[in-house]
Amino acid sequence: MRGKKIVVTGGYGFLGKHVVRELLNKGYKKIGVPSHEEYDLTSRDGVFSMFADYNPKIVIHLAANCGGIEYNKENPAKLFYDNAIMGIQMIHTAMQFLVEKFVQIGTVCSYPKFPYTVPFEEGSLWFGYPEETNAPYGLAKKMLLTQIQAYNKQYEHFNGIYIIPSNLYGPGDNFNPESSHVIPALIKKFVEAKERGDEKVTIWGSGSATREFLYVEDAAKAIVLATEQYNKNYPINIGTGLEISIAKLALIIKELVGFEGLVVSDDSKPNGQPRRVLNTSRASKEFGFKASTSLKEGLEKTIEYYIKNKGDLDNG
């Protein structure tokens, strides 16, 4: 890969910034980061223009439209269309431009609501329908796995891989309550409740659902390692392999923030998928990835980031 042009779509986004930084830290210099303002990747012309202008040899496709449960409930059609059309056009155009390596980022939301194995093994992706609120996004992303595998089979020059990260969090995350995921949403709630002197913070659902969380810098390291070393026609999970209930997560954030009130659940709100944790043994075996940031350490850094930038984030 040294000396070859690498394009990172979504490179100005939450995960993308960390992937670009990891590439720079490892000595890669020819990195292109197309912006949404320059190229609309839901448009065929936008995708073609991006490839023509950058002429990459390696593409890491991170650009996506995604959000939390409420955002998923309100935007199912847009989530399906945007993610499917971007990926389909990116993969096909990469094949036409003779790209040497295409890295497609999938989602844990593609796994069945009730998989036959927990932690989720890559082979269980097709054994059931995703959790309903995540299904349009998850299925759109899963179709791109089918496309990657089909193109690997039909076009000898095409080398595509498919990476499935667990739930990401960390500095630079989205703290907009209308579209944020659970960790930034909880951090914002507890920090603001402490500032106001509230007596309680309410969390969505019963709190019994479990999730696995991967610190964004660890995710970036895994993606770059896979880009360098993984070349198999089989999806691969990246994560910590550890799960925690939303109720316990809320209590940890409460303690780290220093909120002294109560934590109560709102059972009228959806829990989402009952359990979500990945089997990450394949990533360890194939390219030696093991997450190095503990949940507490990652939460401390994320809380520190939010408090430091709260004014800009709340007004932006």
Outline of this structure?
By secondary structure, the protein is of the alpha/beta class.
Percentage beta strand: 5-15%
Name the helicity range. Answer: 40-55%
In whole angstroms, the N-to-C terminal distance is: 37 Å
| CATH architectural designation of the domain at 6-168 and 213-242 and 275-292 | 3-Layer(aba) Sandwich
Instruction: Report the mean per-residue pLDDT as an integer.
Output: 95
CATH C-level class of the domain at 6-168 and 213-242 and 275-292: Alpha Beta
Q: What is the approximate shape?
A: globular
CATH homologous superfamily descriptor of the domain at 6-168 and 213-242 and 275-292: NAD(P)-binding Rossmann-like Domain
Biggest sheet record: 6 strands, parallel
Task: Briefly note the CATH topology name of the domain at 6-168 and 213-242 and 275-292.
Answer: Rossmann fold
The whole-angstrom Rg is 19 Å
- N to C succession of SSEs: EHEHEHHEHEEHEEEHEEHEHH
Number of helices: 10
Main attributes?
two-stranded parallel sheet; 316 residues; six-stranded parallel β-sheet; Rossmann fold
What can you tell me about this protein's structure?
Helix 8 crosses helix 10 (295-315). Strand 1, helix 1 (14-25) and strand 2 (31-32) form a beta-alpha-beta unit. This protein has 316 residues and is of the alpha/beta class. The protein has ten helices and twelve strands. The chain has helices at 14-25, 44-54, 69-74, 76-96, 135-154, 182-196, 216-229, 246-257, 281-287, 295-315, and strands at 6-9, 31-32, 58-61, 101-105, 160-165, 167-169, 200-204, 210-211, 213-215, 236-238, 244-245, 262-266. The protein has a six-stranded parallel β-sheet, sandwiched between helices. The protein has a two-stranded parallel sheet with strand order 6-9. It is globular, with a radius of gyration of 19 Å. The chain has a domain at 6-168 and 213-242 and 275-292: Rossmann fold (3-Layer(aba) Sandwich). The two termini are 37 Å apart.
